[in-house]
Amino acid sequence: MDELSRLCDEVLYYAWDPIGVSTSTGARDEYASYAKMVFRYLEDGQNATKIADYLGHVRTSSMTLSPMPEKDREVAELLVAWRESLRDD
Fold first, then answer.
1. N or C: which end of the chain has fewer CB within 10 A?
2. Sign of torsion, CA 45 75 71 58?
3. Distances, alpha carbon 84 to alpha carbons 11, 30, 57, 61, 77, in Å
4. Are 75 and 53 in contact, with CB atoms under 8 Å apart?
5. Cα separation, 76 vs 47, whole angstroms
6. What pLDDT does residue 25 have?
7. The dihedral sign for the CA sequence 62, 67, 71, 73
8. What pLDDT, on a 0 to 100 scale, did the predictor assign at position 20?
């Protein structure tokens, strides 16, 4: 698995985790489908705003949870920073 793809999966599972499953051993792949889309956004050079908007949509529309735009933005910025860091290597 590509390093950035793996990081997307880990960041969504451990840092974003809107339904609180990161401490459950049986839910490791809970956000895998969302991580794939975020990875595509990162590969396409999308900015943190686009990624945060996607995460917010997933949170509110797919999961029917309350919005947390600050958290979505924080996670999106972390992912973009990782992308840029990996490019510099």
1. C
2. positive
3. 15, 26, 24, 29, 11
4. no
5. 8
6. 81
7. positive
8. 95
pLDDT band, residue 56 (cuts 50/70/90) = very high
Task: Kindly state the DSSP code that residue 63 receives in the 8-state scheme.
Answer: S
Q: What is the pLDDT of residues 45-54, one digit of tens each?
A: 999 999 999 9
Reduced 3-state DSSP string for 3-51 = HHHHHHHHHHHHHHCCCCCCCCHHHCCCCHHHHHHHHHHHHCCCCHHHH
The token pair that represents 72 in the structure block = 């979505």
- The model's pTM is 0.93
CB atoms closer than 10 angstroms to residue 44: 8
d(CA 2, CA 81): 16
Both tokens of residue 80? 């973009």
Structure tokens at 79: 């992912």
Q: What are the extents of the domains in the chain?
A: 3-88
